[in-house]
Amino acid sequence: MTDTAFTHAREIILAAQDEPMKRPVIKSFFDLATFTVSHVVRDPGSNACAIIDSVLDYDPASGRTMNDSARALINYVKSESLEVRWLLETHAHADHLSAAPLLQAELGGALAIGREIVRVQEVFGKIFNAGSEFQRDGSQFDQLFQDGDRFKIGDLEATVLHVPGHTPACLAYIIGDAIFPGDTLFMPDYGTARCDFPGGDARQLYRSIQRLMRLPDETRMFMCHDYKAPGREEFAWETTVSAERTGNVHVHDGIGEDAFVKMRTERDATLSMPNLILPSVQINMRGGRLPPAEDNGVHYLKIPVNRL
User: Fold this and answer.
1) How many CB atoms lie within 10 A of CB 236?
2) Angular region, 180: left φ>0, alpha ψ -120 to 50, beta rest
3) Which among 145, 210, 146, 220 has a CA at the least distance from the CA of 179?
4) Apex CA 143: angle with CA 131 and CA 181, to 5°?
5) What residues contact 240, with CB distance under 8 A and at least 6 apart?
6) Within 13 Å, how many C-alpha atoms sit on residue 72's CB side?
């Protein structure tokens, strides 16, 4: 069967590589507390932009949220007189809280995520015993993308590829000549995402990565995280498909599916849960919103004991 979504993604990339006005201008913001990179992606021919994977600061000791990271994005957008068309989430993150509702209130834009978020909501809705108030139909988002869906940021052509494995709902956004793969891949010297969360699948991740690796070599790739591999002095989040395909320490050319699954499974068994997984998923499965306040006006997050 022809992979029409992949074919269209490739066409968008090649067209942008031949035409500068089809290449997005990208401003990235690194959050050291969570090692997360948020990206403002703008159309070079207009003031239209999208924001990918925003961060809401959270102090687990006090349970307080703060807006410093989001405010940096807001200030940049306003200083450049940009118009936010999209707030894009690559998946429901387990390591940071999304600031999408705050950004939407101040800047506008449609909030989007992958259609398979409903699977994540179903699984984690049970884990957190969220109750009937929590809708498990993705209705907390304005747009649920599926593989091959197309959209525009001003005159920039964009599409999505479904890249499950880290979570069932992971998307890679292809915007002009740039790919935003979320947690599917990290910088070549750091490797690939874990697959041991509920709904994760190392074999699926390998196949998703191989799909991305078939895109044009010089396609720019912008990571969602960087943990600075041993021996590297600076944080980094931009690479290319070619660099990943030839140099990724976990999945470069020549690494077969079974070998990858064995490595990923064994490695994941040694990893601790992310520090912010419990608050992050409860909020991110709701599109970045807190659970409803209780009768005293206070919002509460749950800690499922001995569950994860």
Assistant:
1) 18
2) beta
3) 220
4) 100
5) 217, 218, 219, 220, 221
6) 16
Cβ–Cβ < 8 Å for 277, 285 = no
Tell me the domains of the chain and their CATH numbers: 4-20+27-228+236-282 (3.60.15.10)
pLDDT tens for 61-112 read 999 999 999 999 999 999 999 999 999 999 999 999 999 999 999 999 999 9
φ/ψ of 138, rounded to 5, equals 75, 10
Residue 20 CB: number of other CB atoms within 10 A? 11
What is the separation of C-alpha 220 from the centre of its chain, rounded to a whole number of angstroms? 16
Rounded Cα gap, residues 85 and 51, in angstroms: 8
- 27 — phi, psi (to 5°)? -115, 125
- Other CB atoms within 10 A of residue 119 CB: 18
What is the DSSP pairing of strand 150-153 with strand 156-162?
A: antiparallel
